[in-house]
Amino acid sequence: MALDEALLHWHAEEKLPPMIRFYEWNPATLSVGYFQKAKRDIDFDQLEKLNLGFVRRPTGGRAVLHEHELTYSIIVSENYPNMPKTVTEAYRVLSEGLLKGFQNLGLDAYFSIPETNEQKEALAKPKSAVCFDAPSWYELVVEGKKVAGSAQTRQEGVILQHGAILIDLDAEKLLSVFKFKSDEARERMRHKLPEKAVSINSLANRTVTVQECIEAFYNGFQEALDIELVPYELTAEQQQFVEQLAETKYRSTEWNDKY
């Protein structure tokens, strides 16, 4: 999270070009959205029991368990050529790379577009704290089920969009770290989640590796956004800045417990 924020700042200062990166989490970590009420929604005793990390994202949205998945992030100026001004349409443009990536893996993915009033109301007032409970505008679905979840923030004239691409899904582990109003509510979500979310491996009927996913989405973003990606390595000074930001912000109780 610190690196995503640092890249946003450096891009705003025109020290770096737009960036796309792919990463995993070690240890496996539960991230919550910027405004999410973590103490209300999350079972911290269970997080500790499972040796899971915890962090609050700089972006909105709901909680995501980053374990059997690939995370991507995009940092790009709001003034980038042909970049839509609205958040929803910017999602559509930036997520074209995800769409192509899933297609590169042989999956028939498409954008979620809530159409009924009931679907739109569900987005405005989500019924659970679980990110993969329901797809939002222009998130990726396959066979009607969410396969990637994304979130976005805009600071200093720069868009940061990042999200989780599900490679596998341990539904029982995921649900175990959330608080529910009752055992009945937990049971309803246990039955509902497989109807709402799906992983790449269950769709592909084979084991898709992280490296395969990186290559598929790397090429997907290049093709969809008509760009050429070139490798970049942080300088020692930049790495030190990121580590300091992680220590003073994203590892701090003040940040992570703010809501």
UniProtKB/TrEMBL annotation:
Pfam families documented for this protein: LplA-B_cat (PF21948)
Highest taxon of the lineage: Bacteria
Signal peptide range: none
InterPro entries according to UniProt: aa-tRNA-synth_II/BPL/LPL, BPL_LPL_catalytic, Octanoyltrans_LipM/LipL
UniProt keyword Magnesium present: no
GO molecular function terms noted in the UniProt entry: ligase activity
Entry keyword set: Ligase
Database matches in PROSITE patterns: BPL_LPL_CATALYTIC
Gene3D superfamilies tied to this protein: Bira Bifunctional Protein, Domain 2 (3.30.930.10)
Domain BPL/LPL catalytic as annotated: residue spans: 14-229
Protein name as catalogued: Biotin/lipoate A/B protein ligase family protein
Lineage: Bacteria, Bacillati, Bacillota, Bacilli, Bacillales
